[in-house]
Amino acid sequence: TFLGILYIGLFSSTILMIREFFADSEMLYPEGGYLIISIMVSIWVCDSAAFFLGSAFGKHKLFPRVSPNKSWEGAIAGFIFAIITMIAAKATVLDILTLTDVIIIGTIVGVIGQIGDLVESLIKRDAGVKDSSALIPGHGGIFDRFDSLFLTAPAVYCYLHFFIRKYL
Asked: Mean pLDDT over all residues of the chain?
C-alpha cells in the first residue's frame, strides 16, 4: 500500500540525506556517517534501557492497547539513556556538533524513536500479527530493529536543516 512505501521508502531515505548533510568538498561524509551510526546506537540503547528498566521498575502502562508491556518508567529511562548515548557520541566521534545539538538530537531519538516503536506495534496489531518477521527470533522481527529509525531520521534531518544549516 501507499503507507508502506511512505513508511519505509520516504522515511528511510532521510538517512542518506543526513549522511550527505555534512559532505565536504570531496563529497566524503565521515561526520554524517558517524551521526547516523550514533543515532542508531542511541535508538538501540533507548530500546534496551526502556525494556530492561521498564521490566524491572515499570508500574504504569504507557499504551496498553497498542503495546501492553511498555511502561512510563521504561519510556523515561529510554529517553534519558538516548540523551546520554548522544552525549557519549559527541565526546568520541561527533565533534562537529555542539553539546546542545547532541542533547536535542538525543531528545528527538528518545521521544520520536519510542513513538516510531509504538506506530509499528499499532501497524502489527492492526494487521493481526505478533512479529513483523521471524528473521530475528524474540525481537519482533527485522522491522523492530528499524521502526524507531523510520520516524527519527526525518525528525533529525529537519532539525539539521532548519537549525544547523545556517551555521555551516
From this structure: 85
